[in-house]
Amino acid sequence: MFKREWVDYGARVTGSAGYGSMVYVVCQVNNGGWDGVHTRYGRPFTPWGRLSDGSYVYDGWIGAPTVAEDGYSPGTPACVFGP
Fold it and tell me: Residue ranges per domain, the chain?
């Protein structure tokens, strides 16, 4: 899995984690780029997880809990940006 600097497949890759690696998602963004494959509730699956190192991973490629109708995984806070 590639870690990216933002929530889009075109964003710069900042690192990677091997299959089965543990990553710590601190919050989710639900308006990121879509992989063109995953859908949920008939819509593109767009959640990305922000990791503790500030990079992002596509939730469709990690073992994040299944998102609810609101597009977020239960128990995972939405990322808040700005002041």
Answer: 2-61
Summary mean pLDDT of the chain: 87
- Nearest CA to 48 out of 73, 21, 67, 29 is that of 29
pLDDT tens digits, residue range 11-26? 999 999 888 888 889 9
What is the band of 83 on the pLDDT scale with cuts at 50, 70, 90?
Answer: low
For residues 48 and 61, give the distance between their C-alpha atoms in angstroms, rounded to a whole number: 10
Q: How far is CA 72 from CA 13, 16, 31, 66, 79, in A?
A: 23, 23, 10, 8, 10
DSSP state of 78: B
